[in-house]
């Protein structure tokens, strides 16, 4: 039966035990999509668009054409397809399906346990819902959407192609559903705010708690990915692939640490730059090789969290690269400075006294992932990176405009 949204299926997800580099790229892409949805959830104020975006991004994460959110209707004792991608016209917003334990989605909802069905035609635990049969679905994965206020429904990804959903796919979907549950709860809080101005301050406080909770759950999901990368690293013997997995794990761990600090912060919109970067630098010092030293000079100003995150990732990448490449002897000093320049601007400087830039160095044409990350994060901050010869050593300079609500003395 023809579907209404896509003419061809996306590439299949990698099988367990397959190519390690392909699996790594697949899992990293899932975490990128989780972070993308987290940002969307914080900006969205409309439940319908939030749910629709959730199904779109989740389908991308599992490389499938089909995804849906099943909302439980307590008065009817069944589900309604509240949002979805891939389904025929008239399904989303109208189609009902059973919520009893005899169906995969009903079992996930009633028990709270996720369900993977990789061979629906051979499934003996559940019946295959008619909606899936009509669309030629052969495998499905279901997880509960739940917030502190109770269960909302089920997030389900379906596929008409051969293959397998894995436990790692399940971890991605459960983390995704957790974020969605928190986002739905935040929107319910906003609706209560609009209906009663007397509850204004309470609702704002509740929203901030939920924002911290999102950072906390993103941190937990990223920590899980870092652990999976460590496990994969122990299964390979090729040095180049080992280094790639180590670097990927380190970057994912840094993002998790940043979200951990944001979660623990008293203020969710701004953060004290000196304290925030001080903690990050302490951890970098702890992991640096003996003989390396790091000196810092960081202004005590309040910076918007939207800028603090890419700035922290950029600093981590620059310092890590400096310790790794600047000194052939393995010993030397790296200096980090973040200070105001002209009004409304900060200047980031990372310098060393090492062997300096190669004679033919061209930052725009360097193909390494690290340099691409540095260029991308610099662009995200709105600045133009400069690589300078420090005679001796290398100096990186980035000046960027600070968002409003920042640059207040901490």
UniProtKB/TrEMBL annotation:
Reaction catalyzed: ATP + protein L-histidine = ADP + protein N-phospho-L-histidine
Residues covered by the Histidine kinase domain: 213-404
EC numbers: 2.7.13.3
GO MF annotations, alphabetized: ATP binding; protein histidine kinase activity
Gene3D superfamilies in alphabetical order: 3.30.450.40, Histidine kinase-like ATPase, C-terminal domain (3.30.565.10), PAS domain (3.30.450.20)
Keywords of the record: ATP-binding, Kinase, Nucleotide-binding, Phosphoprotein, Transferase
One Pfam family linked to the record: HisKA_2
Ion transport as UniProt keyword: no
InterPro entries, alphabetized: GAF, GAF-like_dom_sf, HATPase_C_sf, HATPase_dom, His_kinase_dom, Sig_transdc_His_kin_sub2_dim/P
Protein name: histidine kinase
Organism (species): Paracoccus yeei
């Amino acid at each position: 039966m023809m579907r209404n949204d896509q003419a061809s299926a996306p590439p299949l997800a990698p099988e367990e035990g397959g190519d390690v580099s392909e699996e790594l790229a697949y899992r990293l892409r899932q975490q990128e999509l989780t972070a993308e949805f987290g940002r969307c959830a914080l900006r969205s104020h409309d439940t319908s668009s939030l749910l629709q975006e959730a199904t779109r991004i989740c389908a991308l994460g599992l490389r499938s054409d089909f995804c849906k959110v099943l909302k439980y209707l307590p008065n009817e004792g069944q589900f309604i397809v509240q949002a979805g991608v891939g389904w025929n016209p008239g399904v989303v917003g109208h189609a009902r399906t059973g919520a009893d334990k005899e169906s995969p989605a009903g079992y996930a909802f009633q028990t709270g346990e996720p369900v993977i069905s990789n061979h629906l035609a051979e499934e003996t635990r559940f019946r295959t819902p008619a909606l899936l049969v009509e669309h030629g679905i052969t495998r499905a994965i279901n997880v509960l959407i739940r917030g502190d206020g109770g269960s909302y429904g089920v997030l389900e990804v379906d596929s008409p192609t051969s293959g397998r959903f894995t436990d790692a796919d399940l971890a991605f979907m459960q983390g995704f559903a957790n974020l969605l549950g928190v986002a739905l709860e935040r929107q319910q809080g906003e609706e209560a705010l609009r209906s009663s101005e007397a509850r204004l301050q309470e609702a704002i406080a509740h929203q901030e708690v939920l924002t911290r909770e999102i950072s906390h759950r993103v941190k937990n999901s990223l920590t899980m990915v870092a652990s999976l990368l460590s496990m994969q690293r122990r299964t390979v013997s090729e040095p180049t692939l080992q280094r790639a997995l180590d670097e990927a794990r380190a970057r994912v761990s840094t993002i998790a640490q940043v979200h951990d600090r944001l979660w623990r912060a008293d203020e969710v919109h701004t953060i004290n730059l000196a304290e925030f970067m001080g903690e990050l630098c302490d951890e970098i010092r702890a992991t640096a090789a003996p003989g390396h030293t790091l000196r810092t000079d960081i202004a005590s100003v309040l910076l918007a969290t939207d800028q603090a995150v890419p700035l922290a990732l950029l600093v981590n990448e620059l310092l890590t690269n400096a310790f790794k490449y600047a000194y052939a002897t393995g010993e030397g000093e790296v200096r980090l400075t973040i200070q105001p320049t002209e009004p409304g601007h900060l200047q980031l400087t990372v310098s060393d006294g090492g062997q300096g830039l190669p004679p033919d160095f061209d930052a725009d044409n360097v193909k390494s992932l690290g340099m691409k990350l540095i260029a991308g994060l610099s662009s995200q901050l709105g600045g133009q990176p400069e690589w300078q010869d420090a005679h001796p050593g290398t100096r990186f300079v980035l000046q960027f405009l600070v968002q409003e609500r920042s640059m207040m003395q901490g």
